[in-house]
């Protein structure tokens, strides 16, 4: 029986890497993308192979949608050459960047960068990859707790995530004929290097997050990797078109 295959954008580090390792433990093989750190990408391939899984890493800048058709062609080649498959099963739109800028200070350049990476990117990447996604597959988009609660300086970033939450419902509706379920996971504040590693490295910020979270701590990468693995597990097929927040109960 063929193992399932997940395509994860931004898989070489942070939450994408953690999700990949959780999925491998669940018997899923990985096609991942990286932007610039080929060394980190190949290190993840080696780690996955040491765990008994298979993996391939492809370079992709999710902010450059003009390259998506060529990327889909490369994915098709990798599926055939390394996995002896024509299709993959799970698409996880994870890649992104953090940016802090108050509304009155946000520049057109900053706004366009966020649009290209966090909304236009996953919109058109998913569109280009749909012919390679199995019927009955899953799409997991990634939002943020900041689309529900408001912290100054994240207005543009959160607005892109809000747009993805709306898009997720439309994707679920329109792809239902292919039995593809689409959900969006919204992490809370997580101890990673995202956004300069503030939650992880700044003790005061970490304390503030813990003090405003029902479970009394900031999130950890394993909290999100495990949630992504849960959303593609066999028992979650009937969850569809939903925003699922994994924040430990932040700002309830």
TrEMBL record:
Belongs to the short-chain dehydrogenases/reductases (SDR) family. Its EC number is 1.1.1.100. One of its GO terms (molecular function) is 3-oxoacyl-[acyl-carrier-protein] reductase (NADPH) activity. Transmembrane segments: none annotated. It comes from Pseudomonas fluorescens. The keyword NADP applies. Keywords: NADP, Oxidoreductase. The keyword Metal-binding does not apply. Signal peptide: none annotated. This is 3-oxoacyl-[acyl-carrier-protein] reductase FabG. Pfam families: adh_short_C2.
């Amino acid at each position: 029986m063929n193992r399932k295959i997940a395509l994860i954008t931004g898989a070489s580090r942070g939450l994408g890497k953690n999700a990949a390792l959780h999925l491998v433990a669940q018997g899923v093989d990985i096609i991942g993308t990286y932007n610039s750190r080929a060394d980190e990408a190949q290190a993840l391939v080696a780690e996955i192979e040491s765990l008994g899984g298979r993996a391939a890493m492809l370079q992709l800048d999710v902010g450059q949608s003009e390259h998506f058709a060529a990327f889909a062609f490369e994915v098709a080649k990798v599926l055939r050459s390394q996995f002896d498959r024509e299709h993959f099963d799970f698409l996880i739109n994870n890649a992104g960047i953090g940016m802090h800028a108050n509304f009155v200070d946000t520049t057109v350049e900053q706004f366009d960068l966020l649009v290209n990476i966090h909304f236009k990117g996953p919109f058109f990447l998913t569109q280009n990859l749909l012919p390679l996604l199995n019927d009955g597959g899953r799409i997991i988009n990634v939002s943020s707790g900041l689309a529900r609660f408001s912290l100054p300086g994240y207005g543009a970033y959160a607005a892109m995530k809000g747009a993805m939450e709306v898009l997720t419902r439309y994707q679920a509706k329109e792809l239902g004929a292919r039995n593809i379920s689409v959900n969006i996971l919204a992490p809370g504040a997580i101890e990673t290097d995202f956004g300069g590693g503030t939650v992880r490295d700044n003790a005061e910020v970490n304390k503030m997050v813990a003090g405003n979270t029902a479970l009394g701590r900031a999130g950890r990468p394993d909290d999100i990797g495990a949630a992504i693995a849960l959303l593609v597990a066999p028992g979650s097929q009937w969850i569809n078109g939903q925003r699922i927040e994994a924040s430990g109960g932040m700002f309830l």
